[in-house]
What we know:
By secondary structure, this protein is of the alpha/beta class. 38% of the residues lie in helices and 19% in strands. It contains nine helices and eleven strands. The radius of gyration is 17 Å and the shape is globular.
Amino acid sequence: MKPIYNRVLLKLSGESLQGDSGYGISPDVLNTYAAQIKEVLNLGVQVGIVIGGGNIFRGLSGVNKGFDRVKGDHMGMLATVINSIGMQCALEGAGVDAHTLTSVFMEPIGESYSKNKAIDYMKQGRVVIIAGGTGNPFFSTDTASALRAVELEADVLLKGTRVDGVYTADPEKDKTAQKYDTLTFDEALTRNLRVMDLTAFALCKENSLPVIVFDMNNEGNFKKIVTGNNVGTIVR
Length: 236
């Protein structure tokens, strides 16, 4: 099967890494994701990854509990680094060469991020995991994934979630919710579908970067998407 994309940016939520435990990192989930990523890499697709930190700490939620927003966001950035190192370990265990690049200086824990370094690694067939968000408070990892996808000239931003696309309502709460196969950016905004936060959404729209929302926990979906199968919801 021939891939339709040359370079992709995969956004994974931190919550997806916790599996059924409700907190932390599930090695089984990491290993499952690593196997799927390896499949796609073997097709010749260049892969960059951004992972959230909500399974460990979410900065914004800390504000309601007395945390300073900036410090809370810094804690959230560190949570993404923990998740990224875990993903790197799982990939290396699967025989994949992977590198964690951090948006803030954190050597030797991770290499400092630069566009040229990341692209060079991806051209060599290595997976690049970009941790630390944008490196600034007040920006989500959705925004970080949109920024890195645009910066690294990815063909598409793939948002791997626990839901198999974008729905008219939360399908976990509303059984009558209907799934969209395709959407325009304007339709998603008008209908307030919350595909991503507004800053991330604006970046994708302004740079004509398509976004595909899909269920990463359904094994094989990642490969299906990069080979042109209709999986999830595409926003363009």
